[in-house]
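Worked example
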Amino acid sequence: MTAPETEMQAEDVRALRQSAVPTALAGLVAIGIGAAVSGFKGALGALLALAVVTAFFSVSHFVVDRVAKNNPSLMMGAALGTYVVKIVVLAVLVSSFRDTTLFNGRVFGFAAIALVLVWTGMQVRTMATSKILYVEPRS
């Protein structure tokens, strides 16, 4: 493995961590709020929202990153493809658990929206503060 590949992987891990850690902290807050609002079922709804959001965004990050390294021209297609898959899987999850009494669906929904906003906001912040080369340096 060459030095630029190692450096790129470290940058990817840093970017993922800068979104995942604040989302996990916000998830803990959501679990606490869910527990206060609806007891165990509310806490479980928020915990499931945290798991879904973290899994969806982490998988998307790795898929798009892998495609970008192999064929950068396909990166946008990969990003859109993962987005469509996430929407379909989320629709299946929501319809499967529509009438569940296992967890509070409202807490799940509000927590998922809040966590998506935290993750996305941190991604925007990371990209805005990163120093990304837009010209390939000569070796």
The mean pLDDT is 85. The chain has one domain: 3-128. The helical segments are 3-70, 75-96, 105-129.
